[in-house]
């Protein structure tokens, strides 16, 4: 069975891969070496779980502020802006959050999603090592023993037709990212050969997978940490249909991102085949 499935309507720059396929390791590495992105299906992430998790994230994000912050006891950062000379390297977007007490059912669903994505992460890390022909298939897993993951709930507000990117171009800094989207157009990956931004397609029952800068460094650049963004109506060099972007940006956008990071104290070094 081919690991690359039917992707009618999808740009093959971002292929669809079945994690359960016997050919998944080579298909995953092939995609991550060319574009740094793929769409992934796995029995561990059934469509019903993905649908419930997306609904749960909306419930949390759309709940009143008083409910969302009702369990807050301490702030992660002081209320004043820090001295940039001392704190410029701190990454505030990855600070931990708490599930609001007003949505306990949503918390249970999101915990279920987190646990499933942790298992998928381990399978992905193994597939990467196998696909790269590394001698130790568990070499990447050994760097991820402490479940140093972040599950982020993302809510993009509607924007005007003159708005540029809803999320600025960037690459993720960690190991691997799994992203659940609501199907709204706008997520784009940079195709450096064409110097264009390519739409990352949405396939029901699949999650988006992309590589972070640390994984790229570990593999000597073999796996690519690709720039990506959420485009707006006025974004430049976009291959997304302008009317699709205008309609999408008139509505809120929801997604759930699972960021996998290495264990604290792990040395950044390149992984070879020895």
TrEMBL record:
Gene Ontology MF, one: dioxygenase activity
Signal peptide positions on this chain: none
Residues annotated as domain Fe2OG dioxygenase: 147-262
Gene3D superfamilies: B-lactam Antibiotic, Isopenicillin N Synthase, Chain (2.60.120.330)
InterPro entries membership: IPNS-like_FE2OG_OXY (IPR044861), IPNS-like_sf (IPR027443), Oxoglu/Fe-dep_dioxygenase_dom (IPR005123)
Keyword Metal-binding: yes
The entry's keywords: Iron, Metal-binding, Oxidoreductase
Similarity-based family: Belongs to the iron/ascorbate-dependent oxidoreductase family.
Protein name per Swiss-Prot or TrEMBL: Fe2OG dioxygenase domain-containing protein
Organism: Pyramimonas obovata
Taxonomic lineage: Eukaryota, Viridiplantae, Chlorophyta, Pyramimonadophyceae, Pyramimonadales
């Amino acid at each position: 069975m081919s690991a690359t499935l039917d992707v009618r309507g999808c740009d093959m720059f971002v292929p669809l891969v079945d994690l359960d396929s016997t050919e998944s390791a080579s298909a995953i590495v092939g995609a991550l070496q060319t574009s740094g992105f793929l769409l992934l299906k796995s029995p561990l992430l059934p469509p019903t779980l993905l649908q419930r998790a997306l609904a749960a994230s909306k419930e949390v994000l759309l709940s009143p502020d008083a409910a969302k912050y009702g369990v807050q006891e301490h702030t992660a950062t002081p209320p004043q802006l820090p001295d940039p000379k001392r704190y410029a390297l701190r990454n505030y977007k990855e600070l931990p959050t708490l599930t609001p007490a007003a949505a306990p059912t949503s918390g249970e669903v999101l915990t279920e999603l987190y646990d499933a994505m942790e298992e998928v992460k381990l399978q992905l890390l193994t597939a990467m090592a196998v696909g790269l022909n590394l001698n130790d298939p568990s070499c990447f897993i050994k760097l991820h023993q402490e479940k140093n993951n972040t599950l982020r709930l993302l809510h993009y507000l509607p924007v005007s037709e003159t708005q540029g990117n809803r999320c600025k171009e960037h690459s993720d800094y960690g190991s691997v990212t799994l992203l659940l989207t609501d199907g709204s157009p706008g997520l784009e990956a940079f195709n450096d050969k064409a110097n264009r931004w390519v739409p990352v397609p949405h396939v029901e029952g699949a999650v988006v997978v992309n590589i972070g800068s640390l994984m790229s460094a570990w593999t000597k650049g073999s796996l690519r940490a690709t720039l990506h963004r959420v485009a707006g109506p006025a974004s430049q060099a976009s291959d997304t249909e302008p009317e699709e972007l205008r309609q999408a940006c008139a509505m809120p956008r929801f997604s759930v991102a699972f960021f996998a990071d290495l264990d604290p104290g792990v040395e950044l070094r390149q992984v070879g085949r020895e």
